[in-house]
Design goal:
The complex is a heterodimer of chains A (334) and B (132). Chain A has 334 residues and is an alpha/beta fold. Chain A contains twelve helices and ten strands. Chain A is globular. Chain B has 132 residues and is an alpha/beta fold. Chain B has a single domain, classed as 3-Layer(aba) Sandwich (Rossmann fold), CATH 3.40.50.280. Chain B has five helices and five strands. Chain B has a five-stranded parallel β-sheet, with helices on both faces. In chain B, strand 4, helix 4 and strand 5 form a beta-alpha-beta unit. The longest helix of chain B has 14 residues. Classes of the chains: A alpha/beta (334), B alpha/beta (132). Chains A and B meet through helix 2, strand 3 and strand 4 of A and helix 1, strand 2 and helix 2 of B.
Chain lengths: 334, 132
């Protein structure tokens, strides 16, 4: 370690960790330098994504899950809680800590709230960078909590080795979840607030969604008789997302959830899918960094007046947007 | 002036349950483009200092209506300093008698706001305190 922040983070200095998280979130030169040093120490932590619609109780679930991991001081847990930025002011109100007050006073837990800020790819990039820092600092697992309401959030959920999608009865949002494409990303489904009425309906809706996505498990009614389709369900290499019930505020079902998360990690390691997910994750990270760098180069190279002139031509319909893009990027019209 | 967004922890230490003021301020700061971490009611000074450290905030805003500000605010400042966060700016909102103001300022509280204070003033003072 030649940079002081990287060395301090590895030695367990919490203030240095907090400050480096800010640096990497802001993508400063100092942050990138420390990341370069820390990167070889990453790749050890289990990344767990927790996502779902607003009001399903994600923060409470993260709270009890983290407490469960801390039983017997077994693991040091990091939590990255993402909330949306206001598109109007660019500010954000980050309230996830309100539900995580039980975790206060335990120095084996580090909670960091994060605003989604501007760009789509930017959030995934910043989150990835922050998980690298926690990983190098020896935190394992790292729990990433996001609102599963848009593409950006689904992308972040895909950063994780294990993605837990949280639903709750009575929100009427099964269709919303399908629209956001979040169920496809789920390795484990949780029906939280399972002490509320309507839990069977939510569970049934999830089950039928799963059967569409995993035909191996499908059973069809044919002339009144139930028929099982396919034999893949017996294949131990196929992961069928389990559906669990929890009451996060009371801790009910949380040890079972932790056990399923562990079972999923073991499944990934046994089938080689762990390495595959790592590869995909790093590839996505690399690609988004390449894109960012290309766009930055482009903005530096193209002069403002040239850009304004070409945009004007497009506006007057004398140049098509496709030709304009080509002209801006490689200086030729076609 | 810092590179990224201004990050503010809004916390309510002590036992009174009146969080309307804290929420109004939190929202005003968000609308001014800041990232506000809201921690909710009944926080101990230890919880506040720890959250401020983990979140690496630039500003801690304390809402105190219980009259216990002369016990709570110095303790928060002490813990922040002990944890190495000497550059965090502390602001207080609530019911603070005039005779307590000099002592709180002397301890390092940057701004103190009573009933009727405007959120524009708070936003302006935070920006000024951070050199922007």
């Amino acid at each position: 370690m030649t940079t002081a922040p990287a060395a301090a983070v590895v030695s367990g200095n919490r203030l240095a960790l907090a400050r480096l998280l800010t640096e990497v979130e802001d993508n400063t030169a100092g942050g990138r330098e420390a990341l370069r040093e820390l990167f070889p120490r990453t790749g050890r932590a289990h990344l767990i994504g927790i996502t779902g619609a607003p009001g399903t109780g994600k923060s409470s679930l993260v709270n009890s899950l983290a407490r469960n991991y801390r039983l017997g001081n077994r693991k040091r847990v990091a939590i990255v809680a993402v909330d949306p930025s206001s598109p109007f002011s660019g500010g954000a109100l980050l309230g996830d800590r309100v539900r995580m007050r039980d975790l206060s006073g335990d120095d084996g837990i580090f909670i960091r709230s994060m605003a989604s800020r501007g760009s789509l790819g930017g959030l995934a990039q910043a989150t990835a960078a922050m998980t690298h820092v926690f990983d190098a600092a020896g935190y394992d697992p790292i729990i990433i909590e996001t609102v599963g309401a848009g593409q950006g959030e689904v992308e972040v959920a895909r950063l994780a080795h294990t993605t837990v999608v949280v639903e709750a009865p009575g929100l009427g949002d099964e269709i919303q979840a399908i629209k956001a494409g979040i169920l496809e990303a789920a390795d484990i489904l949780v029906v939280n607030k399972a002490d509320r009425p309507g839990v069977e309906n939510t569970e049934r809706a999830l089950k039928s969604m799963l059967e569409l996505g995993h035909p191996s498990r499908q059973s069809i009614r044919h002339h009144g008789e139930s028929m099982q389709m396919g034999h893949e369900a017996m294949d131990p290499d196929v992961w069928i997302p389990p559906i669990l019930r929890t009451v996060a505020t009371e801790g009910t079902g949380v040890p079972e959830l932790a056990a399923e998360i562990e079972r999923h990690a073991e499944h990934l390691r046994r089938t080689g899918a762990w390495a595959e997910r790592e590869r995909q994750r790093l590839q996505a990270e690399l690609e988004s960094l390449v894109q960012q760098s290309l766009v930055r180069d482009f903005r530096e190279r193209v002069k403002e007046e040239q850009y304004t002139k070409i945009l004007g031509d497009v506006f007057r319909r004398v140049l098509s947007p496709w030709d304009a893009a080509k002209l801006l990027v490689d200086g030729k019209r076609r | 002036m810092k590179a990224g967004k201004i990050r503010v922890l809004v916390a309510k230490p002590g036992l009174d349950g009146h969080d309307r003021g804290a929420k109004v301020v939190a929202r005003a700061l968000r609308d001014a483009g800041m990232e506000v971490i809201y921690t909710g009611l009944r926080q101990t000074p230890e919880m506040i200092a720890e959250a401020a450290l983990q979140e690496d905030v630039d500003v801690v805003g304390l809402s105190i209506l219980s009259g216990a500000h002369m016990a709570l605010a110095p303790r928060v400042l002490e813990l922040l300093h002990a944890g190495g966060q000497t550059d965090v700016k502390v602001f207080i909102g609530g019911i603070i008698p005039d005779e307590d103001l000099p002592r709180l300022k002397e301890l390092g509280v940057v701004g103190i706001y009573g009933p009727g204070a405007s959120t524009e003033d708070i936003v302006r003072d935070i920006r000024a305190a951070l050199g922007g």
